[in-house]
Design goal:
The chain is about 20% helix and about 35% strand. It contains 3 helices and 7 strands, in the order βααββββββα.
């Protein structure tokens, strides 16, 4: 199975890290075309709807919403998973992102993000390169860049 695993440690309780990751996603998820989802290059506000079945959205206005994923698992404060849809319509079933939050004895939370299902990415379009090792490495770097934004504000 093709997957990427990225780990980080953040100061504070697992509940705070879970909340930061989910409820405050637009505050830590980087901006710009490298990190946002709209094929037209617009930059909206990201949000997760709470609970299993909730949507992962990029909002550009009240009635202008792009669904970029669906919540698969919602178990605060320890586990959160979502399906990340491909950026092109009809581009396959998407990939799975699972995030585990584990408290440590020293007042930190270990965050482990696993992005799996990369082998299901369609062979056409801009996502096809995720099947290659070099771009899996690039995806690891992409997630590591994003996760750095979670750490500073966890309390």
């Amino acid at each position: 199975m093709s997957e990427v695993v990225v780990r980080t440690r953040v100061r504070g309780a697992a509940a705070a890290a879970f909340r930061r990751f989910t409820a405050e996603v637009d505050g830590w998820w980087k901006r710009g075309p490298r990190f946002r989802f709209d094929p037209q290059g617009r930059e909206g506000k990201l949000a997760f709807e709470e609970g299993e079945g909730g949507r992962f959205l990029e909002r550009f206005g009240d009635d202008d919403v792009l669904e970029v994923g669906r919540v698969l698992t919602w178990e605060p404060p320890r586990l959160f998973a979502f399906r990340l849809h491909p950026p092109a319509p009809g581009g396959g079933s998407g990939t799975r992102v699972e995030v585990r939050f584990e408290a440590t004895d020293d007042g930190f939370t270990r965050v482990t993000l696993t992005h799996s299902g990369l082998d299901t990415v369609p062979t056409g379009g801009r996502m096809r390169a995720l099947r290659s090792t070099s771009l899996r490495n690039a995806l690891s770097t992409w997630w590591a860049d994003l996760l750095r934004g979670v750490a500073p504000r966890v309390g």
